[in-house]
Amino acid sequence: MDRVVEPELMDDDAQARAYSEAGFAAPHERFVDLFVERFGTPRGRALDLGCGPADVTLRLARRCPELSIDGVDGSAAMLRYGRERIAGAGLEARVTLTEARLSRDPVPYADYDVVISNSLLHHLHDPGVLWAAVKQASRPGTRVFVMDLMRPASAEVVAHLVDEHARDEPEVLRRDFEASLFAAFTPGEIEAQLEAAGLGALRLDVVSDRHLTVSGRL
């Protein structure tokens, strides 16, 4: 099945609010579980690329109390909900959010100890933007952990996954999930992206019926 790109930004307020309020606790907690299985609970400074409303960001901050996190996203609407979430958690001293488009803006700092990204890759029309940002933010020894959707083999499988995992979600999120599955990359495509970016040492693992991870130390 060919890839069908979707808008890079979720910057409509209603869409951002629906995403922020959606029931993503299980996959987001799974992200953190898999990160901790791979790397433990590191200390230092982390960068979250495409942090959205900062749910994964805060879950990682709670699990890794000696980690400070910079979240970056291009959607002002998403970041508004993220900042509200951070203030509610009382973690403003450890979690900072910045509005930036990776295709044009530099990351806040270089030499991060950890670089993570959840569900950003499939939004990008040019996947090389993510891998370039990972390299820009890293140094030798940086821990990298990226989780994203993977594109199914057919439209029929897309319909099954939407019904299986988003049956009770608002229609706007069902449509977004469907579009994201069509926009996602296959494992083979991502492996080719990593080789082209000079990141072939990172490991790709399929971790569910719709998710894969890319992880390792640079």
Structure notes:
The radius of gyration is 16 Å and the shape is globular. The protein is an alpha/beta fold. The protein is 42% helix and 19% strand. It has one domain: Vaccinia Virus protein VP39 (Rossmann fold, 3-Layer(aba) Sandwich). Helix 5 (128-137) links the parallel strand 4 and strand 5 (143-149). It has a seven-stranded mixed β-sheet with strand order 3-2-1-4-5-7-6, sandwiched between helices. The model has no long low-confidence stretch (mean pLDDT 94).
Give the tally of β-strands.
Answer: 7
Count of individual domains: 1
Helicity range: 40-55%
CATH superfamily: Vaccinia Virus protein VP39
**Order of strands across the main sheet:** 3-2-1-4-5-7-6
Number of helices: 8
Strand content: 15-25%
What's the gist of this structure?
With 218 residues, the chain is of the alpha/beta class.
Give the key terms.
218 residues, alpha/beta, 7-stranded mixed sheet, 8 helices
Question: What is the element layout, followed by pairings?
Answer:
Blueprint (H helix, E strand, L loop, with lengths): L12 H9 L3 H15 L4 E6 L5 H9 L3 E7 L2 H14 L5 E5 L14 E5 L9 H10 L5 E7 L5 H12 L4 H13 L3 H10 L6 E4 L4 E7 L1
Parallel strand pairs: 1-2, 1-4, 2-3, 4-5
Antiparallel strand pairs: 5-7, 6-7
